[in-house]
């Protein structure tokens, strides 16, 4: 009897130490990526303590009216970070110096409302705290809230980015944003250049669990010949939505739950119902297939890897400290001081009148 008690106590101790041990490794595995020099988890803790609640509360209202705006804001942050770093350059209008990043082909399908939402958030934040928070920081926070408020993970965003004073050329924009026609070999190579590994690539692609696409982004898989890797019924339905190769229509990217940030995108890929070649080929290529399968089976795993990759993405080539500037209006660089001053003056007059 006594020996049974001793041995079961021992077993219990053994099991709990195993659990402790495995928990240690789980939390190690969940450890967040390092913060780059100049950014910090607590950057505005004393100078603008209400920053995150201003952004979140406003976006709760925006998404209540139109949940699709969440996808637009998430994609905007991605397009900002991949081209010239997360410096808000995608927000800038063109100038006499030439056309902007904004007018490069991949950016033409960014939602017009997304730019307005970011500047509205910027105005609310600056009214509360003064001009101390950059448009690029606001875009990073908006993307996080887009994920969380549609059902995805909540995560911390390191802050302190400064806004760039120049935008990229249209060619540089094209060079940095991969086309949806790309296969996994291209995708892995292009993202490895930005220090993303295959797990990051598959996790980031999971952002396609929300939002829409224009037909022209994938109709090369339908016309003239149907991509043999695509499910037949899915292809027929897409043909109904996109009757010609250059139809202006749009379709949902995740047919199972288009407005919810979950792991159903991977279930779509497993069912051969992924929209782009860049999506579906992740399930064909042996280097990424198992990652797709594991994310499809385990949403928590996907969320952990997604958060990790987003925090990495949000720190790509950031400007910090004395670099760049804090824009007074997200679409105009301060260099054009007269214009910025006029804009600010107008905003103050308007705010006082309201
Ligand atoms: C790296 C490979 C990627 C490719 C090739 C790609 C391509 C595209 C394309 C072609 C569209 C549809 C545009 C349209 O026709 O309207 C789209 C939409 C979208 N993408 Fe990606 N994307 C990639 C990665 C990402 C990443 C990393 C994110 C975010 C972390 C993201 C978030 C989104 C979202 C949320 C939408 C829906 C936008 C909306 O509804 O307005 N994508 N993507």
Radius of gyration: 23 Å
Structure classification: mainly alpha
CATH class of the domain at 50-211 and 253-332: Mainly Alpha
> In the CATH scheme, what's the topology name of the domain at 50-211 and 253-332?
Peroxidase, domain 1
Sequence of secondary-structure elements: HHHHHHHHEHEHHHHH
Poorly predicted runs: 1-29
Q: Name the bound molecules.
A: protoporphyrin IX containing FE
Note the gap between the termini: 81 Å
Q: Report the strand count.
A: 2
Mean pLDDT: 90
Shape: globular
Strand content: under 5%
CATH-scheme architecture of the domain at 50-211 and 253-332: Orthogonal Bundle
Q: How many helix segments?
A: 14
Widest beta sheet: strand line-up: 1-2
Helix percentage: 40-55%
Note the main sheet.
2 strands, antiparallel
Give me the secondary-structure topology:
Elements: H1 2-29, H2 51-65, H3 68-82, H4 112-129, H5 135-149, H6 170-176, H7 184-192, H8 198-205, E1 212-214, H9 232-241, E2 250-252, H10 264-270, H11 277-284, H12 289-297, H13 299-313, H14 337-353
Antiparallel strand pairs: 1-2
The structure holds protoporphyrin IX containing FE.
Residues 68, 71-72, 74-75, 78, 109, 111, 178, 180, 187, 204-205, 207-208, 210-214, 217, 276, 278 line the site of protoporphyrin IX containing FE.
Protein name: Peroxidase
Catalytic activity: 2 a phenolic donor + H2O2 = 2 a phenolic radical donor + 2 H2O
Site (Transition state stabilizer): 75
């Amino acid at each position: 009897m006594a020996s049974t008690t001793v041995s079961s106590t021992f077993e219990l101790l053994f099991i709990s130490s195993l659990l402790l041990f495995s928990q240690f490794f789980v939390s190690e595995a969940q450890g967040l990526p390092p913060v780059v020099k100049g950014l910090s988890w607590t950057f505005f803790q004393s100078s603008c303590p209400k920053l995150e609640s201003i952004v979140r509360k406003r976006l709760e209202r925006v998404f209540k009216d139109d949940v699709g705006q969440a996808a637009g804001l998430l994609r905007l942050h991605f397009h900002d970070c991949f081209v010239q770093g997360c410096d808000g350059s995608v927000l800038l209008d063109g100038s006499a110096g030439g056309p902007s990043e904004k007018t490069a082909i991949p950016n033409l399908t960014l939602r017009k409302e997304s730019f307005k939402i970011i500047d509205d958030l910027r105005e609310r934040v600056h009214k509360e705290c003064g001009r101390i928070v950059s448009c690029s920081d606001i875009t990073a926070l908006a993307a996080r809230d887009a994920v969380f408020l549609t059902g995805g993970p909540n995560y911390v965003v390191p802050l302190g980015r400064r806004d760039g004073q120049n935008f990229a050329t249209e060619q540089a924009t094209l060079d940095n944003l991969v086309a949806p026609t790309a296969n996994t070999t291209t995708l892995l190579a292009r993202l490895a250049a930005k220090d993303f590994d295959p797990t990051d690539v598959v996790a980031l692609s999971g952002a396609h669990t929300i939002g829409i696409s224009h037909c022209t982004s994938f109709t090369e898989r339908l016309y003239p010949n149907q991509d043999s890797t695509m499910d037949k019924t899915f292809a027929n339905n897409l043909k109904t939505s996109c009757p010609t190769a250059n139809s202006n229509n749009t379709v949902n990217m995740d047919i199972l739950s288009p407005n919810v940030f979950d792991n159903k995108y991977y279930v779509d890929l497993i069912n051969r119902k992924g929209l782009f070649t860049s999506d579906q080929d992740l399930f064909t290529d042996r280097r990424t297939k198992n990652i797709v399968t594991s994310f499809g089976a385990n949403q928590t795993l996907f969320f952990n890897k997604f958060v990790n990759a987003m925090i990495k993405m949000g720190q790509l080539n950031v400007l910090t400290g004395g670099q760049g500037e804090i824009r007074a209006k997200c679409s105009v660089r301060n260099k054009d001081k007269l214009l910025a001053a006029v804009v600010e003056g107008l905003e103050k007059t308007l705010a006082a009148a309201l």
